[in-house]
Amino acid sequence: MAGAPRAGMFGHRGPRTRRLLVFLRTRAQAPVERRTHLDRRRAAPLFRRQAVVFTDTADFTARTLADGILHFLMLLERAAEDVERAVLRCRGHVVKMEADSLLLRFPDVASACRGVAAIEACLARRNRRLPPNERLRFSYGIGYGDILDLDDDLFGLEVNLASKLGEDVARPGEALLTPSAAEAMRGGRRLVPHGRVRFGPFRLDVRRLPLRPPAR
Q1: Reduced to 3 states, what is the DSSP secondary structure of residue 31?
Q2: CB 179 within 8 A of CB 193
Q3: Which of 42, 89, 180, 214 lies at a CB distance of 3.0 to 4.6 Å from 124, suitable for a disulfide?
Q4: What pTM value is reported for the model?
Q5: CA–CA separation, 70 vs 77, rounded Å?
Q6: Chain-centre distance of CA 79, in angstroms?
Q7: DSSP run (H or E) holding 142
Q8: Sign, Cα dihedral of 114, 115, 121, 124
């Protein structure tokens, strides 16, 4: 379409992405002292309050060294349909797959926790009938807050924190919640303390969602 802004780094030309790009160019041309006002007044409709889950696959690098990337991608593809059904049953949506990780959205933290438990149960059922080099284990980070919600991606502090927890902190079969996600679960499913996790110069209190261990 003539005159339409390029998607550039966002890689998608859907309506929400186009609105963001128009806003960013307007913001770049505005005086510095007016940018915060613009953010509050014009960017708010681009954000949605929701829960996000970032998964990471256990031993991805070691397993691709042992069996090759095609074998690993075969495992992910074969499990994808079952995992997506589990997510949909809990009111969630698979936003994208990035390398060995999944980015998921849910309307609230309770739904995200149910979705994580459903994925774990799904993987446990599958793993029981598979040889060891075809089993998949995920770790999970759960965040909650105002998320910049584009057509096929999510951005924001809670996305970043969920990614770090899922990839760098949580162990296989473990789900960790950001402070905002844990706060939103008050009065709901019981969470347990995990400890303080360092993010650069900051330390945040992280909580863990108890998940049923896989059957031996």
Answers
A1: coil
A2: no
A3: 214
A4: 0.86
A5: 10
A6: 18
A7: strand 138-149
A8: negative
> How is residue 165 written in tokens?
């927890």
pLDDT of the chain along its 216 residues, tens only? 444 444 456 666 678 788 888 888 888 888 998 888 888 777 788 888 999 999 999 888 888 888 899 988 888 888 888 999 999 999 999 998 887 889 999 999 999 999 999 999 999 999 999 998 889 999 999 999 999 888 788 999 999 999 999 999 999 999 999 999 999 987 656 889 998 998 888 899 999 999 876 555
Ramachandran angles phi, psi of 52, nearest 5°: -125, 145
Q: How far is CA 168 from the centre of its chain?
A: 13
| Neighbour tally for 2: CB within 10 Å | 3
Buried b (16+ CB within 10 A) or exposed e, 65-88: eeeeeeebeebbeebeeebbebbe
